[in-house]
C-alpha cells in the first residue's frame, strides 16, 4: 500500500515563466521540438500572464525561454514584473547580454540568475551549433558576477561533454570566474524535442551518471563552490555519499512552469499540462483533481511508495511516455 505522496500549497511559490518559445541557438539536446518557432507572443499577452501570476501570489518569477533576452520586449517585461513585486531571477544562454542589460537587472533588483555553458569552448560551440557562443556566454557571466549577481553555470550532460565537467569549471577558473557568487549545476539529458534523437542515439547510462557525480564532488572539493545535479534522481540508484549532491525536484508542489501561451506545467521538460491560467485561475488549477492525482505518484513502482528515502521516484521527464506519467529511466518497472 502506497504511503508516500506529494504535498502542496495553494499556489506555487516559484514559477519559471517561458516568456517566449523562440531561441537564437540550436542546442542538440533541447527539449523543444526541432525547428523551434521564432514567433514571439504579443506583449499584452505577456503582461496578462504576469497579472495572473501576481493574483495567485507567486513569489519568485524565473524569466525563461526559449531565450528570454531574445524577446524583443524583454526590457518592458522585466520592468513590469519588477513593479508587480516579484522576486526575479533568470535563465539565459548569455549571448544577448551586455552592460546595459545587466544594469537593468540591477535596477530591477535581480540577485540571481543562470547561464548555460555546456563544456569547454569547442564543445560548447558544438553543442549550441553556433560558433562564438562560448565567448559570449563567458562574457555575460563575467558581467553578471562583476555586478554582484549570484550566478549558476548550467551544463546539460551529453555524450560530447561526458568527463569534461571539471575541465569546464577549470576553464572558468582560469578566466577568474570561479568566485564566491558562482555555483555549478548539472542537468540530465531528457528524451523530448531535439533531445529525443540524442537520448536514443547516445543514451547516458547509470554508470555514466555515477561518474558525473564523482566529477561534481571533485569540483566542490577543488574549487570550494556549490556544485550539484539540479534535477531529480532516484536515490536508491546512487551511493549515499552522493545524495547531498542531488538537488531534487519539487514540481507541482512549490514549483511550476508557465509556457508562453499560459499552459500550466509541473516543469518545463515534462509534457504534462494541467490547465491554462489565461482560462482558469492558477490557484484553481493548482488544487484541481488532475494535480491532486499527479501528487499521488500512482505511476511509480510499488517500492517507491513505501521507501524511507522518498525522493519522488526520480525524474518523470527522463523516460518517454505516451501520457506523460513515467518512473525515472533508471527505475525497474
Q: How many domains would you count in the coordinates?
A: 1
Write down the secondary-structure element order: EHEHEHEHHEHEHHEEEEHHH
Over the alpha carbons, how many angstroms does the gyration radius reach? 19 Å
Task: Tell me the number of helical segments per DSSP (H or I, 4 or more residues long).
Answer: 11
Termini distance?
Answer: 17 Å
Spatial shape: globular
Query: How much helix, percentage-wise, in residues?
Result: 25-40%
What class would the helix/strand composition place it in?
Answer: alpha/beta
What is the averaged pLDDT score?
Answer: 91
CATH architecture: Alpha-Beta Barrel
Low-confidence stretches: none
CATH superfamily: Aldolase class I
- The overall strand count is 10
* The CATH top-level class label: Alpha Beta
Biggest sheet, strands in spatial order? 7-6-5-4-3-2-1-8-9-10
CATH topology: TIM Barrel
Strand portion, in percent? 5-15%
Oligomer: single chain
Please outline the major beta sheet. Answer: 10 strands, mixed
Amino acid at each position: 500500500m502506497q504511503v508516500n505522496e506529494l504535498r502542496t500549497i495553494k499556489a506555487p511559490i516559484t514559477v519559471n515563466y517561458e516568456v517566449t518559445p523562440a531561441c537564437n541557438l540550436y542546442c542538440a539536446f533541447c527539449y523543444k521540438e526541432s525547428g523551434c518557432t521564432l514567433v514571439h507572443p504579443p506583449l499584452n499577452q505577456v503582461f496578462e500572464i504576469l497579472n495572473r501570476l501576481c493574483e495567485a501570489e507567486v513569489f519568485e518569477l524565473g524569466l525563461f525561454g526559449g531565450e528570454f533576452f531574445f524577446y524583443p520586449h524583454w526590457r518592458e517585461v522585466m520592468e513590469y514584473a519588477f513593479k508587480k513585486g516579484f522576486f526575479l531571477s533568470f535563465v539565459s544562454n548569455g549571448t544577448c547580454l551586455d552592460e546595459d542589460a545587466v544594469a537593468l537587472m540591477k535596477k530591477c533588483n535581480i540577485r540571481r540568475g543562470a547561464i548555460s555553458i555546456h563544456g569547454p569552448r569547442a564543445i560548447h560551440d558544438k553543442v549550441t551549433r553556433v560558433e562564438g557562443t562560448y565567448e559570449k556566454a563567458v562574457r555575460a557571466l563575467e558581467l553578471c558576477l562583476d555586478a554582484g549577481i549570484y550566478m549558476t553555470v548550467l551544463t546539460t550532460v551529453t555524450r560530447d561533454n561526458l568527463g569534461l565537467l571539471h575541465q569546464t569549471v577549470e576553464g572558468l577558473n582560469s578566466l577568474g570566474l570561479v568566485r564566491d557568487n558562482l555555483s555549478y549545476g548539472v542537468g540530465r539529458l531528457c528524451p523530448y524535442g531535439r533531445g529525443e534523437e540524442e537520448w536514443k542515439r547516445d543514451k547516458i547510462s547509470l554508470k555514466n551518471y555515477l561518474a558525473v557525480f564523482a566529477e561534481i564532488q571533485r569540483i566542490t572539493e577543488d574549487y570550494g563552490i556549490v556544485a550539484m545535479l539540479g534535477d531529480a534522481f532516484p536515490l536508491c540508484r546512487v551511493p549515499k555519499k552522493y545524495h547531498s549532491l542531488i538537488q531534487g525536484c519539487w514540481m507541482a508542489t512549490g514549483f511550476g512552469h508557465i509556457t508562453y501561451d499560459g499552459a500550466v506545467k509541473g516543469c518545463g521538460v515534462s509534457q504534462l499540462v494541467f490547465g491554462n491560467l489565461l482560462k482558469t485561475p492558477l490557484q484553481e488549477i493548482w488544487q484541481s483533481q488532475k494535480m491532486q492525482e499527479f501528487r499521488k505518484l500512482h505511476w511509480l513502482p510499488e517500492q517507491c511508495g513505501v521507501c524511507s528515502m522518498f525522493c519522488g521516484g526520480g525524474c518523470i521527464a527522463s523516460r518517454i511516455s505516451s501520457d506523460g506519467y513515467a518512473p525515472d529511466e533508471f527505475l525497474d518497472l
